Amino acid sequence: MIISYYYxxxxxxxxxxxxxxxxxxxxxxxxxxxxxxxxxLASVTMAEDLLKPLDVINQKxxxxxxxxxxxxxxxxxxxxxxxxxxxxGRTIKGTWKEHKSGGYLVEGKWDWINGLSQPNDFRTMVLxxxxxxxxxxxxxxxxxxxxxxxxxxxxxxxxQKVSK
Length: 164
Hints:
By secondary structure, the chain is an alpha+beta fold. It has 2 domains: 2-49, no CATH class; 52-162, no CATH class. The chain is 32% helix and 48% strand. It has 3 helices and 8 strands, in the order H-H-E-H-E-E-E-E-E-E-E. Strands 1, 2, 3, 4, 5, 6, 7 and 8 form an 8-stranded antiparallel sheet that branches. The longest helix has 33 residues, at 17-49. The relative contact order is 0.13.
């Protein structure tokens, strides 16, 4: 009985098994094609709205980013400042330059507002900025006054203590 059922399948459909998988793949690809086109067009449109860090710094005089608790300010004169949103937290005062990895190397003195910190705490930090939106939020922070905080994706790649 099993042998005759198998024999009937072979007689009815004698195409190789790969034919079905290729055919199914092509049908699914054709169904997905409009969605893929929409995703592509959306990404191209979105990419036009994104800015490069150096362009923002050169045009606006500074680039202000935040990770939610600290503010990072890259200024046109290559100075760098970082401080807390609130009344207490870590501060950095130093300089920035482009890093060979494609990020930005910050060299500066680390300190603390309203708290204890080590004297002469110098560190280097490499930040990578993935994208920056043209959309900015006005903030009035006690330490910096009015600033335009930009939506952005960035991460700290490395952090090292250095002796000065």
